[in-house]
Amino acid sequence: MEPEPIELFPRERKQIAPGAVHVPDWLDAAHQRELLRACREWARPPAGLRTVRTPGGGTMTARQVCLGWHWYPYAYARTVVDGDGSPVKPFPDRLRELGRRAVRDALGEGAGQERPGAPVSPYDTNIAEPAPAYDIALINFYDADARMGMHRDSDEKSDAPVVSLSLGDTCVFRFGNTESRGRPYTDVELRSGDLFVFGGPSRLAYHGVPKVQPGTAPPELGLTGRLNITLRVSGL
Ligand SMILES: O=C(O)CCC(=O)C(=O)O
């Protein structure tokens, strides 16, 4: 077996903007393999991997499958209204738990639990809502030429942080500001197993994937291309 490449310097977790944190290597190799296996199951029809068409007549280059709620431009439904019409696949408990752990590890205990407008009391420890109940997964598959334009995740009614996991090829993830698709933005290299969480003041920041670097997936994962698993709370 080839030895694992050793980083000259370990990649550090980094706050990219207030409420937006990159945690390198959050998923170990076994968890990546397990998630990939599950994604392959979820991608099967009915309600499987599909090409997303935009209202202007274009198509997204990243193909997608949804769990829990079906996202289509620009709303949610319980069936694949822009595809085979099947009911969306259920949202698995293990992804709900993964979402909670991701937020806790990236943003700290209690993050994403505040009741909007609730008074902050040093005495009442029950003031926080329960941890965010993730109920949407969008799984995006990128081949070598796929990309995703700058957009905001704004079709949800909840302001709980968005959790993003990467498997396979490395990509350039562009994380911008809440005002426009343009600068200022930060380009972050997301590799297989990396976690990116954005909430709070960054929850509605524009973001996108301008580039995937083909052939950079860990060989032992057995994936050609890139998978992104985005977890959100619908509030619906
Ligand atoms: O692939 C990614 O890392 C980003 C995905 C994304 O922005 C989305 O699904 O809204």
Automatic annotation (TrEMBL):
Keywords: Dioxygenase, Iron, Metal-binding, Oxidoreductase
Keyword Glycosyltransferase attributed: no
InterPro entries referenced in this protein's UniProt entry, alphabetically: Alkb (IPR004574), AlkB-like (IPR027450), AlkB-like_sf (IPR037151), Oxoglu/Fe-dep_dioxygenase_dom (IPR005123)
Cofactor(s) the protein requires to work: Fe(2+)
Domain of life: Bacteria
A molecular function GO annotation: dioxygenase activity
Keyword Cell membrane set for record: no
Residue stretches making up the Fe2OG dioxygenase domain: 133-235
Protein name: Alpha-ketoglutarate-dependent dioxygenase AlkB
Species name: Streptomyces spinosisporus
